Amino acid sequence: MPIILGIDPGTLLMGYGIISADKSNLSLVEMGVLHLSKYKDHSERLHFIFERVSALVQIHRPGIVALEAPFFGKNVQSMLKLGRAQGVAMAAAMAHGSTTVEYAPRKIKQVITGNGNASKEQVWKMLQHQLGFKEDPGFLDATDAVAAALCHHFECRMDTGKGISRSSSHKPAKGWAAFVEANPGRVRDKE
């Protein structure tokens, strides 16, 4: 089964999530966070990100690494540090043969929940439903990373015509009932 590694870049916490995705057979392989605050020097944090992402790619051999693109804030220094963290994660993935893609946070939320303004908790609950896991991740940065990976899976299915069809008349779902009706293959019954 194809493996997708999702990354939610951060400078204090970096989430990662690995899914196995083959058509409609989806499963969570692993998720967690890198605790970066213990490193006082930013270059040490970047080194740790490179080492850990390299290890994840070498162990799981994902074909794709899907990253949540940084959102633009007012603090230029924070954005610069976040961009460096994302760049190091991308470089580590590419150094070990994986392709990288980026998705905006709003896009990920839209694909996973049907609402681009969904909360992190709503994304987490939808992931629990779609992937069938019960554990609490502890940090929502981990589920954000899983969401990036699952977003890529759904986007690939849409692009190849095997998933939800997109047409010029397709409108975003308004509410949960409309999302379920428009996406019957994305929601499964509780077991």
Could you explain how this protein is built, in words?
With 191 residues, the protein is of the alpha/beta class. It has one domain: Nucleotidyltransferase, domain 5 (2-Layer Sandwich), CATH 3.30.420.10. Helix content is 46%, strand content 19%. A 5-stranded mixed sheet has the order 3-2-1-4-5. Helix 1 packs parallel to helix 2, helix 3 crosses helix 5 and helix 4 crosses helix 5.
Largest sheet: 5 strands, mixed
Enumerate the spans where pLDDT stays under 50 for 5 or more consecutive residues: 161-173
Look at the structure and give the mean pLDDT.
85
By CATH reckoning, the class would read Alpha Beta
**Share of helix among residues?**
40-55%
What fold name goes in the CATH topology slot? Nucleotidyltransferase, domain 5
The N- and C-terminal alpha carbons lie at a distance of 23 Å
Coarse shape? globular
Structural class: alpha/beta
